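Technical annex, item 7. During the second reporting period the consortium partners agreed on a shared format for inverse folding records so that results from different sites could be compared directly. Each record opens with the tokenized structure and is followed by the designed sequence. A conforming record, contributed by the partner at site C, is shown below for reference.
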């Protein structure tokens, strides 16, 4: 595999099953290449995590998907419509929050949502519009908010309001840029649960973030971008494949370590990581129990998303060497 190729385990899915597809998309700002020859494939019904460090081109890519920024070259299709030419045809089916929520700071959250709803594509009586505003406020945890102006909101409250705005039209596709920015751990979990619920009801979620834990906890598919280039796109389960080692949890780690000897690769309190034994997990479990070592659990060790991303984008990686060669 050349260093210019995106690493994939699965074959490219058919275009007919995609809600977002890009081909060779590049964006230049003068001499700076913000996005470099990116091919994205977001399947309908996916929870797609678009991951990369700050400054890697994520937000620029998101803005191009929505027709807010034009690509220098390449092709973009969203919900079957070419972007930017026909993006207006599908915007009513897209909920988006990019670079933080937009709002009139002197108005309340409810008033902001009511104005956004009135200017949107939905039709209906004022009563139904008010009902929908209350529904989305409830869903994002702002139902009890009073009539304070948005300028008095915390960053987390603003993020929730922006997400509420993205949900007004019951979108088929959600495009979110750092949606949990400013939220505490409880708020992050609430947003994650909401997105999983929406996805289960049929909404495709495309989420851009630099937070590995957020992507790993929520998404089914990941795309990793590094300095404008897509260096990985695959199912999360495939990315987090087995390492070839086993994780042993036992209340007697000393006994297990003595018994297994050099097979122990790592030790953390009551957990040992060991080289896989002939016969696999069942043979190792039987060996430990027969020699009087109790077990709390034994499972295959899987690669973490952090390990994969660091290997792809850190110093000494193939992509780093490719950047050095181009320089």
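Designed sequence (site C submission):
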């Amino acid at each position: 595999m050349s260093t210019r190729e995106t690493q994939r385990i699965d074959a490219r899915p058919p275009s007919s099953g995609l809600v977002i597809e890009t081909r060779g998309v590049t964006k230049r700002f003068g001499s700076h290449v913000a996005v470099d020859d990116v091919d994205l494939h977001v399947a309908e019904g996916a929870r797609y995590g678009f991951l990369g460090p700050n400054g890697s081109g994520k937000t620029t890519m998101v803005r191009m998907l929505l027709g807010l920024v034009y690509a220098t070259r390449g092709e973009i299709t969203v919900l079957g419509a070419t972007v930017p030419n026909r993006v207006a045809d599908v915007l009513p089916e897209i909920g988006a929050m990019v670079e933080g929520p937009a709002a009139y700071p002197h108005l309340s959250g409810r008033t902001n949502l009511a104005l956004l709803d009135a200017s949107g594509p939905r039709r209906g009586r004022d009563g139904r519009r008010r009902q929908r505003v209350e529904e989305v406020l409830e869903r994002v945890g702002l139902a009890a908010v009073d009539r304070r102006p948005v300028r008095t909101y915390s960053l987390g409250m603003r993020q929730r309001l922006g997400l509420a705005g993205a949900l007004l039209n019951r979108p088929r596709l959600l495009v979110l840029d750092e949606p949990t920015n400013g939220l505490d751990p409880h708020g992050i979990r609430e947003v994650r649960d909401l997105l999983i619920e929406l996805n289960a009801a049929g909404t495709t979620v495309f989420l851009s973030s630099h937070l590995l834990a957020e992507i790993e906890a929520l998404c089914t598919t990941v795309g990793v971008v590094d300095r404008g280039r897509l260096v990985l796109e695959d199912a999360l389960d495939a990315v987090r494949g087995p390492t070839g080692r086993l994780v042993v949890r036992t209340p007697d780690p000393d006994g297990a370590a003595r018994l297994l000897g050099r097979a122990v690769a790592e030790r953390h309190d009551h957990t040992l990581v060991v080289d896989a034994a002939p016969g696999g997990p069942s043979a190792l479990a039987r060996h430990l129990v027969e020699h009087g070592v109790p077990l709390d659990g034994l499972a295959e060790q899987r690669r973490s998303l952090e390990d994969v991303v660091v290997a792809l984008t850190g110093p000494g990686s193939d992509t780093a060497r490719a950047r050095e060669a181009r320089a």
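The domain at 242-302 is CATH 3.30.70.100 (Alpha-Beta Plaits). Confidence is low (pLDDT under 50) at residues 1-5, 7-14. All partners now use this format for quarterly exchanges.
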